[in-house]
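(Protein data)
===
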Amino acid sequence: MATDLPEKLIEDFERGTLNRRQLASRLMGLGAAMAVGSTAVGARADEEQPQSTFTATGLDHVALDVSDIDRSRDFYVKHLGLEVLRESATSCFLGRDGRFFLALFRRDPVGMNHYCYVIPDYDPAEVVRALETAGLKPRRRNGRVYFDDPDGLVVQVTGP
């Protein structure tokens, strides 16, 4: 079923059948599909959907831990046409048309750091309360809120 796609992508990554670049690319594609107004992946308009904690309206960014900032930056510029938004010796932010961005951090071990979805009416204090009410353990860092998915992957939510 299509609603299992993110979970399958993560499982493929963990099994080694997808590398981190393929995972990031496919997650960004999934987020882009959501952002252009499609019905939730796999959901039919006539089916009643369970109440969710939030309603994601698009993928804001994916953050990756990489071993070589310059090499990774050059890869995403060359193969995905991303542009450098800002960079330092330990990080690089890439994007295009202001619709999403890819964050690269020089860290070991390499892998996905986190991914972030846009939600409407973002208020960090309200987000923390909603996540706690849902039985999750949010972590707030200034105006950012993070929480773990069932496999321990870090999810962030932000405003439009």
Notes: Confidence is low (pLDDT under 50) at residues 35-43. The first helix runs from residue 5 to 15. DSSP finds four helices and eight strands in the chain. The beta strands are 58-66, 83-87, 91-95, 101-106, 111-118, 139-141, 144-148, 154-158.
